[in-house]
Amino acid sequence: MHIYNSINWKTMQYPKCKKSYIIKTQISNQKSMDVTFFLQNLSKREEETFKDYVDEKLPTIANLLTKFADDAHLLKSTIEKFEKHDAFEVEFCLTLPTKTIVAKEASHSITKAVDLSKDRLISQLKKHMAILRKDRSHRTIRKTELVKEAVEVWE
């Protein structure tokens, strides 16, 4: 089964989601970002807390996306509340022209789950941008150490 069959594209809802919102957020004068919110088992207060907190965190993600056009990326943010465990699961799915990056975290507070997911998304995004630049500096450190050792041996 393809993902296309499980999502109702007319309303942009997952089959189990109760509510969804599509919001185009203006980050700065030139930058904007499309954000889709999928909310499940949340109260009105928790919905507002989640949307406001994600809007606060968007500029840090958008600053890394300067290489892409404004309409070339889409952020889907999903939150689900588990009543039994009193926990929240937040998932950020960033769709880029070159790759789709997914970051998912769970925590007992909305803000902590959003922060953890955002941090995971940013680290994956930085790694992907380094691959696009063909600059994986953390891999070249070992190679430069080996080259320095080889040069010392020859001297």
Describe, in plain words, how this protein is organized in 3D.
With 155 residues, this protein is an alpha+beta fold. 42% of the residues lie in helices and 28% in strands. The chain has helices at 3-6, 44-62, 110-133, 137-154; strands spanning 19-26, 32-40, 74-82, 87-95, 100-107. Strands 1-2-3-4-5 form a 5-stranded mixed β-sheet. A hairpin with a 4-residue loop joins strand 3 (74-82) and strand 4. Helix 2 (44-62) runs parallel beside helix 3 (110-133). It starts with a helix and ends with a helix.
What labels describe this entry?
Double Stranded RNA Binding Domain, five-stranded mixed beta sheet, alpha+beta, elongated
End-to-end separation: 62 Å
What is the strand content? 25-35%
Structural domains: how many: 1
CATH topology: Double Stranded RNA Binding Domain
Helix content: 40-55%
SSE topology string = HEEHEEEHH
Identify low-pLDDT runs.
Answer: 1-11
Structural class: alpha+beta
* Whole-number mean pLDDT: 80
Count of helical stretches = 4
Specify the CATH class: Alpha Beta
Strand order of the largest sheet: 1-2-3-4-5
The CATH architecture is: 2-Layer Sandwich
Q: What Rg is obtained from the alpha carbons, in whole angstroms?
A: 20 Å
Number of strands: 5
Summarize the structure.
With 155 residues, the chain is of the alpha+beta class. It has helices at 3-6, 44-62, 110-133, 137-154, and strands spanning 19-26, 32-40, 74-82, 87-95, 100-107. It is 42% helix and 28% strand.
Any chance you could write out the topology, listing elements then pairs?
Layout: H1 3-6, E1 19-26, E2 32-40, H2 44-62, E3 74-82, E4 87-95, E5 100-107, H3 110-133, H4 137-154
Parallel strand pairs: 2-3
Antiparallel strand pairs: 1-2, 3-4, 4-5
